[in-house]
Every structure is written in C-alpha cells, then in structure tokens.
Amino acid sequence: MRIARFAHGGGMSFGVVEGDPGAGTEGLTVAQIEGLPFGRVQTTGQRWAVDDVRLLSPILPSKVVCVGRNYAAHAAEHNAEVPKEPLLFLKPSTSVAGPGDAIRLPTQSKQVEHEAELAVVIGMTGARRIDRATAPAAIFGYTCANDVTARDLQRSDGQWTRAKGFDSFCPLGPWIDTDADVSDVEVTCTVGEEVRQRGRTKDLIFDIPTLVSYVSHVMTLLPGDVILTGTPAGVGPLTDGDTVTVAIDGLGTLSNPVVNLD
C-alpha cells in the first residue's frame, strides 16, 4: 500500500495511491482515507487523479533522526572513519519539505550539498527500547529523502545542527510504501541530467532493524517519526536553478527545485 498526504480543493488529506507508478504519476488516483493512516485504513469513497492534487510531504514527523556515515564509501569520500556505533543527529520538523517544494539555499552557506537517502517511517505507538527482532514491527513504511547539508557550516561549526537544520533541508516523498522490501534496493541522486549518487541499501553498515532498535534505546519513537538511514558516496553541490531528484527502486522519485533564499 502506498500512502500519500495531499492538498485538494477541500483541504488536506491522507490517501491510498492506486495504480502502477512505474511510469510516473499519469493514470494514478488517490483514494481519501479517514483520519491518520496508522492502524486500520478506511477510505471515504472520494478519489482524485494524482495529477490533479498537490502531493505534500507524506508525513509530518515529530522528529527526523539521521544516521551519519552509514555507507563506507561516503565516509571515505570525507576522509572520515566508519563509526563503531550508529552516528546520530537530528533534523527539526521544520526542515521537512514535500515533492516539488523548493530547497532554499541560505545566505549563510556557500556549499549546500545533496544526500540521497532511504527514509524509514515509524508506525508503532511509543517504540521505546525495542530489540532488533522487534524492530520491523515498529516500521510503518519507507519513502525517499534528501538530507540537504550546508557542508561548509558542518565543518566550521564542529557539530551538525545548523548545517542540517535549515527550513526545506529535508524533502520527503512522494509517498510511503508500507509493503516494500528495501533490503537491497538502489538509491540514486540526479542533479539535472547528471547522476551524482548511486548505491544499494545492502551496503548499509548498520541495517534498518539495528538502526530502529538503537535509536529507540535513546529516544521514544512516535508514529510518523522518520529515520534517515545514511547516504551513498557522491554527494555534491546544489546551486540556484538546479533540480535534484532522489530515486529509490520500488519507492518512486522525489524531485525538488533549488532556489536562492531571497
């Protein structure tokens, strides 16, 4: 099942995306559901063509928990050691953006970069101190993410809050797939026509159950919270006028224009 959050003439709703998204959004419909998508999903009977609504970020998390250097090749491209335990940091909820929303380049940075990532969306209420075997039951589904980073500020600050936390620095979408097998899928990032990143989730240093369990031993995970699992090698600069696209096999594509912050 694919769950989207979308804006329509009557407001904002969650819905089930119907059809085959292999050829893009043409021909897809979205069936409105009652309330939130966690638990039993019941449709209202209202449907729209996906091309006639505006897809929003598929979830508004209370927090976005990110994992640094979770691909060995990415650690190597920054001359950094592979961590012995998952390296965690946070992005604020205000950094979340949706498909088609602009990534706004802040005036404080001269080096903003893309980081294509697989995102895990939590579904369990109060996932706290769960073990690795229980972790899959806490997962609602998966989506595409871009951990946009002001690289120069990351280096100069000595910690990552400012570099990772600007508004629009966490695009998510286009929807949440609740049934996907993401144990070995390709993650790519394209800027314009140039493929910048290409990796596979089988190369994660710490796999998804390990990450969910590890994070839950630090903080309680709430329904809708998001864990970004790390980025493959090939991160690079974004400039005004670019369009950056994250694609993950079976999950869809997430495209965002890049603009200077006025």
From TrEMBL:
Keywords in alphabetical order: Isomerase, Metal-binding
Keyword Transmembrane helix attributed: no
GO biological process: carboxylic acid metabolic process
Sequence ranges assigned to domain Rv2993c-like N-terminal in this UniProt record: 1-58
Pfam families (alphabetical): FAA_hydrolase (PF01557), Rv2993c-like_N (PF10370)
Gene3D superfamilies associated with the record: FAH, Fumarylacetoacetase-like, C-terminal domain
Molecular function per GO: acetylpyruvate hydrolase activity; isomerase activity; metal ion binding
Metal-binding recorded as keyword: yes
Domain Fumarylacetoacetase-like C-terminal: residue ranges: 63-259
Listed name of the protein: 2-hydroxyhepta-2,4-diene-1,7-dioate isomerase
Organism for this UniProt entry: Actinocatenispora sera
